[in-house]
Amino acid sequence: EADIYQTPRYLVIGTGKKITLECSQTMGHDKMYWYQQDPGMELHLIHYSYGVNSTEKGDLSSESTVSRIRTEHFPLTLESARPSHTSQYLCASSESVPGTGDTGELFFGEGSRLTVL
Amino acid sequence: AQKITQTQPGMFVQEKEAVTLDCTYDTSDPSYGLFWYKQPSSGEMIFLIYQGSYDQQNATEGRYSLNFQKARKSANLVISASQLGDSAMYFCAMRETNTGNQFYFGTGTSLTVIP
Description:
The complex is a heterodimer of chains A (about 120) and B (about 120).
Chain A: E1 4-7, E2 10-13, E3 19-25, E4 31-37, E5 43-51, E6 54-57, E7 65-66, E8 76-78, E9 87-94, E10 107-108, E11 112-116
Parallel strand pairs in A: 2-11
Antiparallel strand pairs in A: 1-3, 3-8, 4-5, 4-9, 5-6, 7-8, 9-10, 9-11
Chain B: E1 4-5, E2 10-14, E3 19-21, E4 24-25, E5 32-39, E6 46-52, E7 60-61, E8 64-69, E9 74-79, E10 88-96, E11 102-105, E12 109-114
Parallel strand pairs in B: 2-12
Antiparallel strand pairs in B: 1-4, 3-9, 5-6, 5-10, 7-8, 8-9, 10-11, 10-12
C-alpha cells in the first residue's frame, strides 16, 4: 500500500484567499508530481520535481507554486484563489528504477478537492 | 497529437462477464511504459497493471490483463469476471523515457458493472 498523504481532503474557501495543499510521502521517492483533474476528466500535470530543490512546471499552465525543500514533502500553494481554481488536485510520487533510467509507477494520494466560491 | 487515446467514454458490463477497455498510444520512443489506473468515485488513483515496451509477454495481475499489441500501438485492459466493485473510471497512461520519464494520461473510460 502506498504511503502518500494529502491534506486537506476537502476545502471550501472564498475568492482571494491563500491556500496550501500539503503532500507528503514516506517511501523516499525522488520524483513527485501535482496533477489537476476536473470531475470525470483526464489528469493534467501542473508541477513536478525530480529531487530536492528541483521543481518544474507541467503541461498545464497554473498560477500555483510548489517547493521541494525535503524529499518527502511537496506542498502546492495558491496565493490568491479564484473560482477557476475549483478542481481536484492529485499528488503523486515515483522512484527511479536502478540501472534502467526508467521511472516506476506513480503512487497517488487520495486527492484534495478544492472549491473556491 | 494525443499521446494516449481512449475512445470509449463509457462502458457497461454484466457482472461476472469479461470486458475490454481500449487504449492506443503514440510515441517514437523505443523505451516506454504503459500503465492502467482505476479511479473509484472516492477520487484516489489505484495502480492496476504495467507493461514495458520491451516485455515479450502480456502483463497479468489477478483478474487484470493487458493485451499489448506493439505494432498497433495498443494496450487494452481486460478485466475478467467483473465485479460490482469494478465500477469506476479507468485511465490508461504512458511513460516515455526520452521525454524525461513524463507520464501522459488518456481521457478515461467510465465502467459500470450491472448486477
